[in-house]
Specification:
The protein has about 120 residues and is an alpha+beta fold. It has one domain: Nucleotidyltransferase, domain 5 (2-Layer Sandwich), CATH 3.30.420.100. A hairpin with a 4-residue loop joins β1 and β2. The longest helix has 19 residues. The N and C termini lie far apart (about 40 Å).
Length: about 120
């Protein structure tokens, strides 16, 4: 099952997993949503208030603050730096509790490293 049909099948599975996770989560003013995006070379995290539809805090491996600590953005070390940075920015904005939106990604590897670093930096989820 290679080719175009395989790619469409995999995309459909990914969307189904994403909807399955997302239907249980809603970022409110008291508890915004920590959403992540993971590509092959980078990882990004943002804290979103779904009531207003606004991004409150964000961090990613393309920022110079992250690039100084981690030269390559596609590994667990860079994900931990992003998690720590987004948690520090959230604390500065007065956010203590979030709900974790892992999208269609397994809670493993870079996703887990980002979440663990954010927890260690003081975010609760």
């Amino acid at each position: 099952m290679k080719g175009k049909n395989h790619r469409l099948h995999v995309q459909g599975q990914r969307l189904r997993r994403q909807r399955h996770v997302r239907k249980k989560l809603f970022g409110s003013t008291e508890r915004p949503r920590l959403a992540i995006f993971r590509s092959s070379k980078h990882i990004y995290a943002q804290i979103i208030n779904d009531d207003e539809g606004k991004t409150l805090v964000s961090a990613g491996t393309l920022e110079s603050a992250v690039r100084q600590e981690a030269s390559y953005g596609g590994n667990k070390a860079a994900a931990a730096v992003v998690g720590r940075l987004v948690a520090e920015r959230a604390k500065a904005a007065g956010i203590d509790k979030v709900c974790f939106d892992r999208r269609s990604y397994k809670y493993h590897g870079r996703v887990q490293a980002l979440a663990d670093a954010a927890r260690e930096a003081g975010l609760q989820f």
